[in-house]
Fold this sequence. Notes:
The complex is a heterodimer.
Chain A: H1 5-25, H2 33-45, H3 54-89, H4 101-115, H5 121-144, E1 145-146, E2 149-150, H6 152-175, H7 179-189, H8 198-217, H9 219-225, H10 229-234, H11 239-261, H12 267-279, H13 283-307, H14 316-339
Antiparallel strand pairs in A: 1-2
Helix pairs in contact in A: 1-3, 1-13, 2-3, 3-8, 3-11, 3-12, 3-13, 4-5, 4-6, 4-7, 4-11, 5-6, 5-11, 8-11, 12-13, 13-14
Chain B: H1 8-18, E1 30-32, H2 35-43, E2 50-53, E3 66-67, H3 76-81, E4 86-90, H4 96-104, E5 108-112, H5 118-132, H6 135-154, E6 161-165, E7 173-176, H7 181-189, E8 192-193, E9 200-203, H8 205-211, E10 215-220, H9 227-233, H10 241-244, E11 248-252, H11 262-280
Parallel strand pairs in B: 1-2, 1-4, 2-3, 4-5, 6-8, 6-10, 10-11
Antiparallel strand pairs in B: 7-9
Helix pairs in contact in B: 5-6, 6-11
Amino acid sequence: MRWSVSLCGIILGLLLLIASVMSITQGAMALPASHSLLSIFDAVFNSQIADMSDYQRIIVLEIRLPRLALALLVGAILSQCGAVMQGLFRNPLADPSIIGVSSGAAVGAVVAIVLLPAAIIGWALPLAAFFGGLITTLLIYHLARSPQGTSVMMLLLAGIAISALANAIIGYLSYFSDDQSLRQLNLWQMGALSGATYSAIALTAIVFSVIAFVFQKNADALNAILLGESEARHLGINIDRLKLQLIVLTALGVGVAVAFTGIIGFIGLVVPHLVRISTGSDHRTLLPLSALCGAALLALSDLVARLVVSPAELPVGLVTAMLGAPFFLILLIQQKKQLH
Amino acid sequence: MSIKTCNPSVIFTLLFALLPLHSIAEPQRIISTDSSASNLLMTLGLSEELVAVDVTTQLPKGKTLANVGYHRNLSAEGLLSLEPTLVVGSEHMGPEATIRALDQAGVEIIQLPTAMTTFQLKENITQLAKLLGAEDAGHESILSIDAKLNQLKKLSIGGQTAVFLLSNNGNTLRAAGTGTGGAAFLKLLGADSIVHFENYRNLSAEALLSLEPDIIIIASTNPNADTAELIRNSPALELTHAAKKQKIIAVNASALIAGISTAAIDEALRISKTLTHTSAL
């Protein structure tokens, strides 16, 4: 079932709009829907149209809106990075964590939680997670480099090895941590969008713009790589430079995302597949559509996470896993049918 | 001016002006994010004003309240949707963003330090009672705690060594070291803890046997399990010194989840009585 690109774009755009509106108007607290939306208009244009108490306005502008913004940006980053990793490694099971960013970030997080004093955790944790992810990725890249170029196979294997090492370190530090640190780490690893501050959103927005721009510029090259590496080289593409560029940008994007939200899985894996099934693998359209779809999906997952056990809240990583895993199974079963 | 011609609302206003302020305060809407805070609020007779509790709180049978989840992962909007006037919890409440949102919304937040000693427990009761205008109930509660502690001292099993194990599943023996709720419980009983490492650590069966504790206390989901049943669940305990003397006892795990609480003191009393009874046999 192939849709035209513009149809897919329109549908995803609408989905994004619906997800955004619902995220602003729905929540644990019952607020008047139209006035919630109008208060955003007020905040931007300095008007006084909406009829809401200060208290209600705080809920919309300081709690729901930042969460929505972070969800949209992180969803877009994760799905674009997923699409790029799948294209680069020519592997449908690739997701951003294949280059070790997630496990590296988790090591950074566990070091911050267990070894650093609680007073500085606020800013130390995202910083440690970010550098953990970046250093791990660079280490893996360095391991896979050779005078003949960067082998994709070596990248995959190095990723597995370093992830195993990272998990061992996390396990060791967890064993010697106290109850409180263990629980904090556990929560962090399940992902949450509650740490959305306007500075986090600004940083994430800048990072997203940079990586989206560069990825889109390299869309043709990514298409060429689908043919095979030698073929792409013969077409004049500098494969090694491209690999380095894409891997570093993915590490940057995912590192920033993980630093602010913990580990949110399945978006990077599942969204590019969804788009490919509808409109094919042409990266020139795959990348922007993945961004739209990822943003909408994460916003909807966050909405579910906030509403399903209200007044408590589920970690958003759990919701994406619960939605993503069955989807993945269905995908596998479909693939199996197609092969026969 | 006779009473009959006085404007009734004026009389009302005068009456209200004369009553002490806290007894006509609007009923509070209190959210408790910690099982020890819930315990304290119920002890102080404020259970009617409780509107929501956290996931670790055990409410008395028949009472159901909204559940706000885990205290380190509170949802700002979720809490505010319950329209609380006060949120009580421990110093571990979080995340930061939620605390800030509650502050901005003008909700009072009381964070009591985790009570690992009876002294801190009594301090918490006094502080909470003062802040909520329930000094009488607070005072009574402290007297009752002191009475129970005296009883405990008389039944003292002092001088005996003990170990506190966290679970009763198979042969995984997780012992409570220093700084844990389990160790605080042993101190309450007056027993000497036989392990000196920090936090909870796994002990091998061999290590436990070599340490030879006189008493083994296990946090079990079934607080009424007798020694035979506890040994059945964890066969490694069979060869211990304590097993032969029938001094392996189950304690209600939920009473100790947040350090020393009045429920923990009641459990300590129950166990002391069982132990002195067993010794006398």
